[in-house]
Amino acid sequence: MSQQSGKMLAQKASKLHSAGKFAQAEKIYKRLLKANPNDLTLIRVLGMLERDRKNLSAALKWFELAKQLSGNHPTFLAEIALTKLNQGKLEEAYALSEEANKANPKDLDVATFYAKVCLAYGQGSKAMHVLEDAIESNPTHHDAMRLLASSAAQSGIIPVPLERIQQFIRMRPNDAAAHTTLGIAHRLNGHQELALESLDRALSIDPTNLDALASKAEVLISLRLPKEAIELLEHADSHQSAVVTLALARAYRVQGDYQSAIEAIERLDTKSLSPNHHQSVLKEHGRLLDQTAFYDEAWERWTKANGLRANAYDVEKHQNQVQSIIDTPCKKYEQSSSSKPIFIVGMYRSGTTLLEQILSSHSQIEAKGEVDLFLRFVSEVNYPDCCSEPKPDWASRYLERTDSIANFTTDKMPMNYLHVGLIKSVFPNATIIHTTRNPLDTFVSCFSNSFASTHGYTQDINEFRTVYKEYQRVMAHWNNIFDDIIEVSYENLTADFEPTLTTVLQTLGLQFEEGCIRFFENKRIAQTPSIDQVRKPIYTSSVNRWKNYEKFLSELNDLQ
Length: 560
Known about the structure:
mainly alpha; Serine Threonine Protein Phosphatase 5, Tetratricopeptide repeat; Rossmann fold; 3 domains; 5-stranded parallel sheet
C-alpha cells in the first residue's frame, strides 16, 4: 500500500468514524494496521472507536497494547484512565490519569483527561491548575478550553475568575454550555442580574439545556423567588439530572416543604452520577432528613456521601505546616497603617458567614466575601518565613482589591486563621475577629455540607479531630502574641445578640444600628453553604444540634 493511498484511506475511515459508521471505519483501520502492525496512532483510534460504540472492554485491550508498545507513554495511560472513567471505575481512572499527568504535565491531551476525572470528583481548582500548566501549547483547543472554563467556575475561588470563560465564549459564541458556565460564574460572584442575562442567552440557544435551567432556578431562589424557580423546572427531566433535582429540592426546602424536596431527591436515578454530583445529592438528602428528625437516616446519607471523596486529607502535612508557623517569629513590617480591613477567621461552619452578614448590614461596613489574596500571597513566597518580611506590594494589592467608600471592609476567609501573623505583619492595625463554636456542632455541620477537596478533613471524623486540635493550637499561639484578637462565640451571638454585637462594634468605634438586627433582609447574597440560613432571623436551633448524633461522635469527646 502506497503512502498516498494509506493517507486517503485513513481520512475516509476518520470521516466514517465521526459519522458513527463504526463497522465500516473499523474495517479500514484494521486493514491499515495489518500493513503497519506497530502503528500507535492506528491502535489508539481503534481503541477510541470501541469506546465510542460503548465496547469498553475491547477499547481497553487496544489501549493496553498501545501502552505496552510505547513503553507506558502518558497518552495511553490517559486513554485507559478515560475508559475506566466510562466504566465507572473512578478510583482507577483517577490514579492512572494522575500518573500520566505527572509523567508529562505539558501534554494537553493528557491534562484534558486528568481534568475530566478531577471534575468528576469536584476538584475544580486542581483541574484548573492542571489545564493552565498545559494550555499554552494549544490555546485554541476547544475541549481543553471548555474544561478550563468549567474548572474556573467550579474552582471554589471567589470571585470566580472570568477570563478563561469569556475567552471560550469568544471562541464559541453560540455555545449554550459556554454561556451557562458564565452565568454560573456570575451567580457565584453575586452578580445575579448578569447571571440571568447569560443564562437566558444560553436558553435562547438551547431551551432544553438542563444546566442552564437549573442555574437560572438557583438564581431565582437567591432572589427570593422559589415559586418561580419551581415553575421553571416543573417540565424539566429531573429524574436524570442532579443539578435540576438539587435546584428543585432547594426551592422546596426554602419554602419549608421538606416532603416535596425529599420526593424530588428520591425520584433521581443516581446510577450514572459522577462522584461529585452523587455526593451533593446525598448531602442534600441527609440535610432534609435532618430537618424532618430522621437523624440516623441523615447520618447514613452523609457517611455514604463522604465515602465518595477521591483521597484522604494529608493530616501530617497540615500538622507540619502549623508547627512551622508557630516556630517562625512574626515581626511588624508596617506596609500600611490602614485600620479598614476586618478579617473574620475560624473553623468552617463556626458562624463566620452569619457574623459577616450582620456586620455588613451596618452602614459603615461593606462585606467583600472570601478574599483569597492572603492565600495567594503565601503561595508566592517561602511561607511562613515571609512573615518577617512580606512583599512590599501586598498591602496595596489587598487595598486595591477590597476598595470601598465604607469605613471598614470585611474579609471572611475562615482559613486565614493560619495566617494571622502575616496579616498583622502587613496590616498591624487591622481587626481580627475569631468566631468559635462548640466543636461537635462544628463537625456535624461540616460533615453534612460539601467543601473543596483542600478541606477534605471535614468529611472524616478522625481527620477533623486532628485538624481541629491544630486549629486550637495555632489560635492559642496567636492569642499569646496579639492581645487585640476579638473572639465571638456562635452560642453567645445567637443567645445574646445585641450585647455581643454591641461589644464588637464598640471595639471598632461604631454605634449599634437597627439595620444589624434585620441582617436577614440584606440584599447581599452570601456564596457559602450558609446562603439560605443567613437570610433568616437569629435562631438557636443549631446550638447543641450534635446531641441528635451523639452516638456517632465518641471520637470527638476530648474536644469539648
